[in-house]
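Quick sanity check, Pyridoxine 5'-phosphate synthase:
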Amino acid sequence: MSQTPTKLRLGVNIDHVATIRNARGGARPDPARAALLAIEAGADGITAHLREDRRHIHDEDMARLKRDITVPLNFEMAATGDMLRIALDVRPHAVCLVPEKREERTTEGGLDVVKGHNHLAPFVAELNAAGIRVSMFIEADAEPVAASRELGAPVVELHTGSWCEAVEHGDLKRAEREFERLARAAESAAALGLEVHAGHGLDYDTAERIAGLPQIAELNIGHFLVGEAVFVGLDAAIRRMRAAMDAGRAKAAGTRP
């Protein structure tokens, strides 16, 4: 299913600004300030993951973000009763349901929406009823794409971690296989009427390439941008990311960025 590429949205994840803050305690660096700077630099939305162990983002961060930012807030969370209660209280623009294990360093793969259908269904229904747009963070395969639609989620976010890892390690054959998997999943999801997002492990080069998939409406990027900010500043890192995404989309459309 082909379509004309539109401008690709950038969601900036500010989790790891909070990670740095929490390493020493206190209030700095302030993730809410980082969110405002990200918006000035060109972010179309702000993403934050409130984990059950509160290892980076805290409850008060979510409340401040909802109050202070002028762009959509994407609330990443595990499908638990406590997180649902907080999401319904904060009322973000969107909730992205993600898998979560206490011992993991970061999210390791997509949510099992096939086996987890019965558990996830009431969460999706309640969030939808509250007017909060639901996204499912999934592996790039046809089965979880179809299961997400059956659950009633209007958005899927494709896990790009396996592809980015293969690129980083120079495994070109695996990287191409993973990219083709992402491309097929994006096309399948769009054909089912789902909005398609992508994220995890993206850098300037991989963001530029995946921007060429016309079905993808939004990329969510965090760790890489916070890391780059150490060397060039957050504003410069986000502006360069925005330029890479625009270049990739323009190339796919056969136009100049």
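Posting the structure with no commentary besides this: Strands lie at 9-13, 45-49, 73-77, 94-97, 133-138, 155-159, 195-199, 216-221.
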